[in-house]
Design a protein that fits this description.
With about 210 residues, the protein is α+β, with helices and mostly antiparallel strands. It contains four helices and 14 strands.
Amino acid sequence: METLWFKHLPSTHKYLIKNIKNSTIKPPLAVGVDFQSDGVGSRGNTWLGDEGNLYFSFCVEEKHLPKDLKLESISIYFSYLLKEVLYELGSKTWIKWPNDFYLNNHKIGGVITTKIRATIIGSIGINIVHAPEQFATLDVQITPHKLVELFLEKLSKKISWKNVFSKYKIEFQNSLGFTFHLDGKKKSLADAKLLEDGSIEVENKRVYSLR
């Protein structure tokens, strides 16, 4: 996959959304940046950071993803692929449901996804060297460029959702002591049941991870 790298963009996610909608670029394509000033986080939050951290987005067509991968599972799928890359580098990073990167009890990054027509846009942020208060940084040394390269190599292997989920459902146990947001409120994951498509059942509601 071709990768474009910029010194600065307001947001790699917004950059791809705009250009996909305008048909000025076509997937597959990845975009990385040294510094972004208006990054997009989960629930509409801003994801900011200093140079040296990872900020990148990529776009792929649905037909180029594993055939058993459902739309509802995509955020988890992307996050777990990067987690596997980090694990192979010696990191103890784990995934808190649905798609946040954690070290012990502290968040170090996350994944968001957007669908435009038949194109999926995934964006990943990781605190490699700098972190805001109450967050943490990655426990292995690697450059953003190299991490993007390793992730895209993993993505190209089209590992099945079945393979990813078989590992993710074991790791899901780590999430049970945490909370998540539902309808603008914090909810406990203690009694959540993980379903086969990566969604959870909590308080008699089925909650999906796509965001």
